[in-house]
Amino acid sequence: MDRHRSRSPTSSYHSRQSSYKRGRDDPGGSYHENKSFRPHNHQHHQSGWTSGQGTPSSQSLSTRRELYERDFPVYKQPVEVGCFSLDSERRFFNDGRQMRYYVEPDRNPHFDLRDGYRDRFIKRDDSVKEKLDHILRWVIANRSKLKSKVPSASSSALDVDFVTWRGHLTKLLTTPYETREGWMLAVTRFGGTLYISEVETESARRERENRTERHEEMMYWGYKFEQYTCADTVHALPDPGGVVNTNEAFCTVVQTRLADHRLLFSGEVDCREKDPEAPPPPACYVELKTSAEICTPKQRSNLHRFKLLKWWAQSFLPGVPRVVAGFRDHEGVVVSVETFHISKISHLIKNEYNCWKPTVCMNFCCEFLSFVKRIATEDSHRVVYLFSWEPYKDVTYSVHRDSQYSFLPQWYIEEITRRPDSHHLS
Ligand code: 0WD
Ligand code: CA
User: Fold this and answer.
1) How remote is the CA of residue 289 from the centroid of ligand 2, in Å?
2) Which coenzyme or cofactor does it need (predicted)?
3) Distance CA 210, CA 204 (A)
């Protein structure tokens, strides 16, 4: 049974919003007081839910860029608190066995990314939705690292506000600039922590089920580039003759804070520097990308305006300092390789007209998390608050009890509630 609930906007948000300074590079023209929370009528309707708090009304979150142009919010340097690996059969290991080591290619390497697509490629089944399962496994195996220091806190208290995938946060960061793909994020409050797990939208499902053969092959190119540039051990060399298996993954787990939101998230990491003098994770990590070769100033500008936004957001979040991009031609041959330092990307894009701004991304994400905290108040693994967004619209939500959207697995609920911290037993 799904139940929907909506609540009215809270004025305290308006007053907090309006106290923010207008960004220095705010475009001219009439300035309106920032109000990112606006009343919005009738997206979802009441169906038998009584919150006991006032009249039925609803609330939404604006994604308009101008509302988020203010000082960069506090974002603490992300700290790696652990890692895990997924093997060739997608089995979880609470260790770094799938870590790979970056081997710098020539500047003009002529890697053939099409090689092996037909005969040496094992593709992960992306119709299987794993939700937060791997992260939850990591949490269970590493609970002592996350225990609340408050003695009276319940055994399920984790001392973080949000648990999610890095990829979900990337989508939030890029939302104010996204014009094509919407998203749906399911949120459950459990033991005081908010878990955020993506739900595939109808249009994303249609796209996944109707990919062209060309698109399928191009998705392989990114993984093939990784194979050309990564070795399995510190002293080994890449093995382009091997099999590409996209079930395998090495994931970092990081903790950080965005304003007053304590975050725990995991992201897949392609490889690390092999130099033993390299800084500790996540500063030694390298993100690999492929992109179409740049032949004209217009193409360079488009890279800056659209792709660098996604690359920046994805790597900035976990504190990965650089992206190595392989630029390939139409035949899938890498013709050049370029390194982008995340800390320099904001300077690179400054000369682009009407370009994206990191501060807008971070402030929007921060406001979304505040919105979630305020809406998702019932602490129950059976309740999902489903936040939905489509380009050019506001973020809206609906509430679902014991529905298809519930995503915290029973084993997790049991593990975390039935086994209090063993350290406190003696
Ligand atoms: O089942 C699902 N719907 C999801 C699975 C949703 C979110 C994540 N995941 C899994 C991925 O399969 C992967 O193991 O979580 C892990 C990655 O999480 P993330 O780091 O939070 O995701 P993101 O930052 O979007 O992607 C990082 C990398 C990608 O690298 P590129 O350079 O292409 O951005 O993870 C890989 C990919 O290499 N990846 C995937 N691989 C296979 N299937 C997928 C996917 N659906 N998503 C990301
Ligand atoms: Ca990558």
Assistant:
1) 5
2) Mg(2+)
3) 10
Give the single-character DSSP code of 170: H
* Least confident window among 20-29, 121-130, 181-190, 248-257: 20-29
Pairing label, strands 121-122, 244-245: parallel
Q: Are strands 79-86 and 92-93 parallel, antiparallel or unpaired?
A: antiparallel
Where exactly are the structural domains of the chain? 65-417
CA of 288 to the centre of ligand 2 (A): 4
The pTM assigned to this predicted structure is 0.87
Structure tokens at 310: 């996604």
pLDDT tens for 387-398 read: 999 999 999 999
Based on the number of CB atoms within 10 Å of its own CB, is 316 exposed (0-12), middle (13-18) or buried (19 or more)?
buried
* Neighbouring residues of 205: CB distance < 8 A, sequence distance ≥ 6: none
Ligand nearest to the CA of 164: 1
At 58, the pLDDT band (50, 70, 90 cuts) reads: low
Residues 422, 409: Cα–Cα separation, whole Å? 22
DSSP state of 155: T
Q: Which among 116, 96, 89, 92 has a CA at the least distance from the CA of 238?
A: 116
Q: DSSP letters along 53-99, please? A: SSS---EEE---GGGG-SSPPPBPPPEEEEEEEE-TT--EESS-TT-
Contact 316, 281 (CB under 8 A): no
* Ligand 1 probe mutation, 268, 310, 311, most atoms within 8 A of CB: 268
Q: Which residue has the tokens 């496994």?
A: 137
Report yes or no: 371 and 151 within 8 Å, Cβ to Cβ.
no
Give 292 Cα–ligand 2 centroid separation in angstroms: 15
How many residues appear in the chain? 426
Q: Burial of 307 by CB count in 10 Å (0-12 exposed, 13-18 middle, 19+ buried)? A: middle
Q: Of ligand 1's atoms, which has the minimum distance to the CA of residue 268?
A: 20
Ligand 1 pocket residues where CB is under 6 Å: 124, 126, 129-130, 165-167, 170, 198, 222, 246, 249, 267-268, 289, 314
pLDDT score, position 146: 87
What stretches of 87-157 adopt beta strand conformation (E)?
92-93, 101-102, 111-112, 121-122
